[in-house]
Write a structure and sequence with these properties.
With 476 residues, the chain is an alpha+beta fold. Helix content is 36%, strand content 16%. Pyridoxal-5'-phosphate binds next to helix 4.
């Protein structure tokens, strides 16, 4: 199972007195969390040190490396977020250029900001006319992006894409890797949503098998692991493993949780022994689910490349994504992952079972019946990450983020330079970043999102209007 967990349990039952951190001293008997705290220790003798792993933690790293067939794998206890920050910092020197998918997660933009990197964007294809969520990044888009940078005299330090996306769209990583490597450019793939890929037939392969140089995966998103656990995989020598390790020691806590690390060890054990079987059973559940919902007319299920994601919308315009999300929660007690303008997202993992698929199919059939005679609400289209506005950059992200800023009403913001990120959360994909000119498109996008009551970060509620942070004109 997990050797680390066994050793922690054994230790917790020994008579060794802890004159060390953590301060609960494994003496929470009678309190909630006592069981977890009993195995919550620090870097004491015999338990290795994540930032200089030579013993049991090195073995867990090697287990990950063998499981994913990598040259090196690193354990992340600060989520994929820490891996993305380390990957960008290791691949790109201060002030260099990164070619990145515009629908990257906020953590990638933070990596750009702290390293004073110039981001050049790759815009995803729009995959679905009705729902307009972001599609894949094509190899042609990458080739074109590289060509444009080279024509502008810019050396591309790395290409960074997200695959699968939050909505389960997978890019052709193999062809993109070939394209990047032809120019000796490393490819970083944010595979936070794809830790389960490559383990069973019927699923796309993982980017680490398809030529990517660095791949970051959240174990906690689709595998049986605890929140915050993730891994970073390295293949080849285009990016220095030593630099990755250096930046991980900067971005990760100096007190990594042994509870989380034993959860990762256990997760790998379950994956090794039951992964393929469980994942294949989810495909069978999905097939039955598809069959049950295929005749629905007012509710539509979209099945993206990643079979663990199901997107639900009402294409006839009866309901917005948020309305479907709310009714599924309030009436059917089904908590979805996210609601967007026209659709919402149900996320499965290898640990689901038939019940998860059955309850959702039944609820959707019932909602369909209730919609038969209703008026259309004709939701105006707005999506989380598709149809991204394409604002023009007036200043690099770090200059605008560090410049003096002021809050102004959204209605007066067109033409001003954004001083902050504005995004829907989840999924945390910004549609305007510091340094970009706020366009009418951006304001429309924000207004539609607020009208739909989607959860927006980066705006303040003012008396008569929302307030948006812009660079102070005196400093422009
Ligand atoms: C595409 C993507 N990348 C990275 C992250 C960050 O992952 P974590 O929560 O493991 O830090 C997220 C979080 O939702 C995400 O959606």
């Amino acid at each position: 199972m997990s050797e680390l967990y066994d050793r922690l349990t054994e230790y917790s039952q020994s008579d060794i007195y802890p004159y060390h951190m953590p301060g609960h001293k494994r003496r929470l008997q009678g309190y909630p969390l006592a069981e977890i705290c009993n195995i919550d220790i620090t870097e004491i003798d015999g338990f290795d040190n994540l930032h200089h792993a030579e013993g049991i933690l090195r073995e867990i790293r090697q287990r990950a490396s063998k499981l994913w067939k990598t040259d090196a794998s690193f354990l992340l206890i600060n989520g994929s977020t820490s891996g993305i920050l380390a990957a960008i910092s290791a691949a790109a020197d201060k002030g260099s250029v990164i070619l990145m998918a515009r629908n990257c997660h906020r953590s990638a933009y933070n990596g750009i900001y702290i390293n004073h990197i110039r981001a050049r964007y790759l815009y995803p294809e729009s995959v679905d006319d009705t729902n307009r969520f972001a599609g894949c990044i094509t190899p042609d888009t990458v080739a074109e992006g590289i060509r444009e940078c080279h024509e502008a005299g810019e050396r591309v330090a790395a290409v960074l894409i997200t695959s699968p996306t939050y909505e389960g769209i997978v890019s052709d990583v193999q062809a993109i890797a070939v394209c990047c490597h032809a120019h000796d450019i490393p490819l970083i793939v944010d595979e936070a949503h794809g830790a389960h890929l490559g383990f069973a037939k019927g699923y796309p392969d993982t980017a680490i098998h398809l030529g990517a140089d660095l791949v970051i995966q959240s174990l906690h998103k689709t595998l049986p692991s605890m929140t915050q656990t993730a891994v970073l995989h390295l293949k080849g020598d285009r990016i220095s493993g030593q630099r990755v390790e250096r930046f991980l020691s900067i971005f990760q806590t100096s007190s990594p949780s042994y509870v989380l690390m034993s959860a990762m060890d256990l997760c790998m054990d379950i994956l090794e022994k039951e992964g393929a079987d469980r994942l294949e059973r989810r495909l069978q559940d999905l097939d039955k689910f598809k069959h049950r919902v295929e005749r629905l007319r007012h509710i539509s299920c979209i099945f993206p490349d990643d079979p663990l994601k199901v997107l639900i919308s009402a294409p006839s315009g009866h309901m917005t994504g948020k309305q479907i999300y709310d009714i599924l929660l309030e009436k059917y007690h089904l908590q979805l992952e996210m609601a967007a303008g026209t659709y919402c997202l149900a996320m499965f993992s290898m640990m689901d079972d038939e019940e998860g698929y059955d309850r959702l199919a039944e609820a959707l059939k019932e909602i369909e019946r209730s919609l038969e005679n209703q008026d259309l609400c004709q939701p105006h289209m707005v999506s989380t990450s598709g149809e991204l506005p394409k604002p023009t950059e007036s200043m690099p992200i770090h200059e605008a983020y560090d410049a003096p800023t002021v809050l102004i009403p959204l209605a007066q913001s067109i033409g001003r330079i954004s001083g902050d990120f504005v995004m829907l959360y989840p999924p945390g994909i910004p549609f305007i970043v510091p340094g970009e000119e706020i366009s009418a498109d951006v304001v429309r996008y924000i207004r539609e999102s607020t009208k739909r009551k989607l959860s927006l970060i980066g705006l303040t509620t003012g008396e008569d209007d929302f307030l948006i942070r812009v660079v102070d004109e005196q400093s422009e």
